[in-house]
Amino acid sequence: MSAARPALDPELSELLADMPLMSQLTPELLARLRLLPSTPVDDLLAHRRAVRREITVPAEDGAEIRLSVLSPAHTGHAAAPAPCVYWIHGGGMVMGDRFSQIDIPLEWLDEFGAVVVSVDYRLAPEANGTTLVDDCYQGLLWTVGHAAELGIDPARIIVAGASAGGGLAAGLTLLARDLGTPPIAAQVLICPMLDHRNTTVSSRQFTGTPGIWTGEMNAFGWHAVLGDRTGDDVPAHVSPALADDLSGLPATYIDTGSAEVFRDEDTDYAGRIWAAGGQAELHVWAGGFHGFDALYPQARISATARRTRTDWLARLLSASGTDGAA
Question: Residue 161 pairs with which residues in a beta bridge?
């Protein structure tokens, strides 16, 4: 007997009807998916007053990490330092690049005049263990170290990511807290991939059925990162749900869908932040599947989810003294 599952939002269900779905991810299929074209970032920038800059910074092991810096184009008098969105892309930690889902933080460039810095961390299985989150950390250190050059206010760094990028954002924020630097003003975790154990109710509900991201695909992604490590040797910076202590974290925004594999690990993470005395805002979008607002931004539920996220950031930035709008 198949598991009962929350129904999809009717509009999303209709949009999803023409999407080829799958339940499994294999090395052969991953190789084919990696050949798909990257998000055409130049098309997204064509109608914006924005400047793109490509940077390469060294990883801890000397490898090159690429960063894309997307800044508002200012004219006239010098602009005040802007908030920064440090963006970490999704893709199950096995695919995608720094332009994946980049339309999401570009909305914040439009809305707040934010500088968007997107990191091209190395992917599993070629990179594994802590390498992915360490790459993100090195990119963040470079960004903060060059804040004046980039026109960034170092007191308003927002770490954000979707799916695997949301999980890496959570791990990066834990790492920065534990190391004492750099300061992070907020984290925005969009349907984040937080728990390698894959044992929640929602994990089971979305295993054994085709989807955008299933329990089987989730297990594939985590195995690519961790290999056979499953217990105490898995660092919390890699699988943030393992963290014993969620105190001392910055303001946190978490959203997820009711009809997706990460629902329960995401809601649990918010609850544990509250239990530790922290501030988190949680939204569970009824009928939303994994990544619905990135895949179908035109849907009503997607527009609402994206607007709600932006409104939260507006409140956060207003409380910090200025919204940074250009």
Answer: 88, 189
One-letter amino acid for residue 149 of the chain: E
Instruction: Assign domain 10-319 to its CATH architecture.
Output: 3-Layer(aba) Sandwich (3.40)
At 86 the three-state DSSP class reads strand
Of 149, 128, 153, whose CA–CA distance to 67 is shortest? Answer: 149
Report residue 264 as tokens: 């329960």
DSSP assigned state of 241: G
Per-domain residue ranges of the chain: 10-319
User: Chain centroid to CA 175: how far?
Assistant: 16
Between CA 198 and CA 215 the distance in angstroms is 7
Token duo for residue 157: 């760094």
Chain segment 291-315, per-residue pLDDT in tens: 999 999 999 999 999 999 999 999 9
Q: Are 301 and 12 in contact (CB under 8 A)?
A: yes
List helix spans (H) across 34-115: 41-45, 103-112
Residue 273's identity, in one-letter code, is I
pLDDT, tens digit (0-9, with 9 covering 90-100), for 154-209: 999 999 999 999 999 999 999 999 999 999 999 999 999 999 999 999 999 999 98
